[in-house]
Amino acid sequence: MNVFTYHLAKTTVHTAMSALLSPPKASDVHGLIHAECMTSMTLGSSIVSPSRMKIHQLAVFAKWENQNAIDDYLENTKLGRVLAGGWYVRLVFQRRWGHVDEFDGLADCVGEANLDAPVVAVTLARLKLLQVPRFIRWGKPVEELVRDHPGITLATASIRLPRTVSTFSVWKTQREMLEMVWGNSSISKPKRHDMAMKERQRKDFHSQFTTLRFKALSEHGQWDGRSDYVPSLNS
Questions:
Q1: What is the CATH number of the domain that holds 11?
Q2: What b/e sequence results for 74-104 when a residue is b if at least 16 CB atoms lie within 10 Å of its CB, and e otherwise?
């Protein structure tokens, strides 16, 4: 069974830059299908803030043939040991909307959705460079909406210049995530995500874009002093 992982790790600038410039490849790593290496960003922070991009923090989203391949990589490679020293979740795919070539072949939906169960959401996009100003204008309010939502336990963003952007979020329930998506949350300015999606439909910011939903299989390590972000795994 294919398994996905999402990693957050603090490291040196040199290690982070090396991963961005030369990410692990399926041809070199046994059992790896594809990996995206990115620099973490502070979700919702000012675009011009020095804290916006955290070049010493890596975010890695990867698809693997099986869990043994994950174990082998984390134990026996230099970058793998860096990632193992951070925080990560192992994920099983549930639902896809949109498309990115590197994660081709995923079904639209697998199995029944439990709206009261936790869910992990990953977005991945390839930006159209001329649309970056519009993307920032419409995307930043959505970042703030997700960051401040009471249904969130962890939310972050990441980037690999010049075109790749991603978000990662852990939700207490899938119901709360869907309420946010459709603008039905009982919070201030709940329509921010819905409005941004309508603007995207009017004129796309991206050449490719996908939203993926997952069930967490396991959670490992700590991030910001915590190790209990996925409720069902620690209840």
A1: 3.30.70.100
A2: beeeebbebbbebbbbbbebbbbeeebeebe
- The DSSP H or E segment spanning 152 is strand 152-160
0.90 exceeded by pTM = yes
Where is 143: in which H helix or E strand? helix 132-148
pLDDT at 235 over 80: no
Q: Which residue range(s) make up the domain with 134?
A: 3-234
What secondary structure does DSSP assign to 48-96, as a single string?
A: T-TTSEEEEEEEEEEEES-HHHHHHHHHHSHHHHHHHTSEEEEEEEEEE
Q: How many percent of the chain have pLDDT more than 70?
A: 96
- Tally of domains within the chain: 1
Please write the tens of the pLDDT for every residue from 164-206: 999 999 999 999 999 999 999 989 999 999 999 999 999 999 9
